Amino acid sequence: xxxxxxxxxxxxxxxxxxxxxxxxxxxxxxxxxxxxxxxxxxxxxxxxxxxxxxxxxxxxxxxxxxxxxxxxxxxxxxxxxxxxxxxxxxxxxxxxxxxxxxxxxxxxxxxxxxxxxxxxxxxxxxxxxxxxxxxxxxxxxxxxxxxxxxxxxxxxxxxxxxxxxxxxxxxxxxxxxxxxxxxxxxxxxxxxxxxxxxxxxxxxxxxxxxxxxxxxxxxxxxxxxxxxxxxxxxxxxxxxxxxxxxxxxxxxxxxxxxxxxxxxxxxxxxxxxxxxxxxxxxxxxxxxxxxxxxxxxxxxxxxxxxxxxxxxxxxxxxxxxxxxxxxxxxxxxxxxxxxxxxxxxxxxxxxxxxxxxxxxxxxxxxxxxxxxxxxxxxxxxxxxxxxxxxxxxxxxxxxxxxxxxxxxxxxxxxxxxxxxxxxxxxxxxxxxxxxxxxxxxxxxxxxxxxxxxxxxxxxxxxxxxxxxxxxxxxxxxxxxxxxxxxxxxxxxxxxxxxxxxxxxxxxxxxxxxxxxxxxxxxxxxxxxxxxxxxxxxxxxxxxxxxxxxxxxxxxxxxxxxxxxxxxxxxxxxxxxxxxxxxxxx
Length: 585
Known about the structure:
By secondary structure, the protein is of the alpha/beta class. It is 37% helix and 18% strand. The strands form four sheets. Strands 9-8-10-11-13-12-18 form a seven-stranded mixed beta sheet, with helices on both faces.
């Protein structure tokens, strides 16, 4: 009984690829199987190749691999695009009655199943259900009980009425029956189901869930791929917690509204991608100068300029670390898994208020759009701890007033974090400005005060280094002389790559770093290794450069910047190749 199944559907944008893939992913997860999805979509409404891939197993899966077992091909290009991943027993489902597919080329020893998707869909009630027919055919090939598909169809089409749901169920069964009756073939797939209960969600949704758990009550944003789903998740949910979502006219308005809400005392957030961060940079400086707690989510995509809006890249690291004029204290937190998007969002809000500083939550497209299964315990709302920092009220505000009884919101404390009074607090009236200011928040050009305030703001970072656990997570062989370091969504494929490497007799120690600034000191780890390799999805090795700067040690690099995420088996091969080069040298 095959545990690991790799399925995909491909066609053109506008063919319902994403919704079809999600239906099948939900069906698999509700049948107690782990799911990991991958999407390849064009940056247009119609036309251009798009695909949705699912890897499913009874064991946890954290990456895609270079293998496809069942492919639903709505176009010849779908087969051509995936040829390298198809193997001898791969099954290709296509509609041979469609003019453009009647002469389809099924390569090698692969199995082609011509299923009249459109005709069967029309029998069930409408041609629009042809993808559902294909799902039914796939269930038969995989020996996956079609009843598992029913609940996913209920969820997808329930709001459209019972008739639509029943028509889709009928369409799926027509696809299943057609394969049963027309193809006398002993397929090698027979996937196992379990009674396990899993949550299926993507990184954007996990960020939205984490924001709600952290007490976010104001979100403003402008739609941009691949960050829009954060706003979509919060819209319709945040009002149940007394919050609101505002769709701004652009990214400048979005961050300024979020800043205003944060100044008013609300936990506030905005989310965008690289081009939006560019536009937000001026206000980012005001956030830091006024010492306002704010969470700014950057879901990275391929750049520069418009770049490839629907493709993977980790190219914004330098911008989040160094962006903005002047010297701006900030935090940069980069979740490394979908579930950690939830946890690190909570941390980001706590960091923002505890240190009264802007926090970049740095995710990427691969993580944002990936649906993955988790145990419900991964998202324990009762375990969330909220730290609002140095909030003062009328009972203790006197300790922070000057000799004239005026509140000092920028008092130069030893740890760099000043007291914070919400608007309306008795005795807490104050002002803040983007100009340099004194402890009262009033503008000044006094040289001593300038130095005092700059040093105060920078002390927050040093305080965080002393107080917070910024250590990376470690996997693999702790005694290995080969050290691999990564950040962001590369953790999943790298963890699975460790299994491929171990099978080949290669031991590796792996460190995954979620804290980019302030960040852990990796000097001792690097000095203890013979070979150090940094894995990231950009061309110049931005995190590798940071590590070399910190440790004064050259590192090897594995960089991918073609718009596609790393795969586990691919990473294992790349690492073996790097080690082989060193051995030859």
